[in-house]
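Backbones bend. We report:
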Amino acid sequence: MELILWRHADAEPGEPDHERKLTARGHKQAAKMAEWLDFNLPSSCKILVSPALRTVQTAQALGRKFKIHPGLAPGAAAEDVLTIANWPHSREPVLIVGHQPTLGRAAALLISGAVQDWTIRKSNVLWVVQREPGDSTSNFLRAVMSPDLVVK
């Protein structure tokens, strides 16, 4: 299985948290990452997004259909992300657009086997693959990408 974790792009400060919008910088970050993802993601990729406005706006930059999943809202547990993605049983790749610290903790769990506070910077992507179905020791990082590295 392939699981792609995409942290939302830069967002405005404020309250309520779930209504925070992307900044102009955030829209640029999201557009750059979306370009890279669109080129690299298979068309069969399932896209699941937190209901927070900043994650929805980040996902919209990709220009593909996605589902909003309330279980991916800020404060979700790393294990919840994996359950929602149907890790490691999904037949198609899954892209999750979500938040810190949840995505960093999910990445740590997949790679190290333990929930740890790993940081995923705004609009960055971590792409994890399980080479042998059901064998967590075969998990590896396929890609780590930042919008700063996307070349147009």
Observations:
- The longest helix spans residues 24-40.
- The longest strand covers residues 139-145.
- The chain has four helices and six strands.
